[in-house]
Structure prediction request, 120 residues.
Amino acid sequence: MIDREALVEMFENIADQGEWDMSKPMLWGYFFTNSDQDALRDAVPALQGDQYELVDIYQSEKDDPTDEDLWWLHVQRVEVHTVDTLAARNERLSEFAIRHGIDAYDGMDVGPAPTIARPA
Prediction:
């Protein structure tokens, strides 16, 4: 679980850089990991039902071929967060991982939301 202090620091760093207005919709990516891809694939419809968009399911590269497989599920959604709403989202996604037999909810990243071209 990502602690609240880490989220406070993340929001402060973003504010210090001054590039993004976090009061506006941002593109949030959320990541899950599992030792096989089946549990991740099985979880996708439930996440899509909650308005998450599937980005990819992919396998980590291995430094050593004997290392155990590690699969990643990346979903995303455009939304506005504060420290508190993001902490609540992380908690819900951690609980989602447990309910769906996924090894871990690994966290999130954020970037600017894509701009939508409007017809002329």
Notes: The mean pLDDT is 93. The CA atoms of residues 4 and 87 lie 6 Å apart. The radius of gyration is 16 Å. DSSP finds three helices and four strands in the chain.
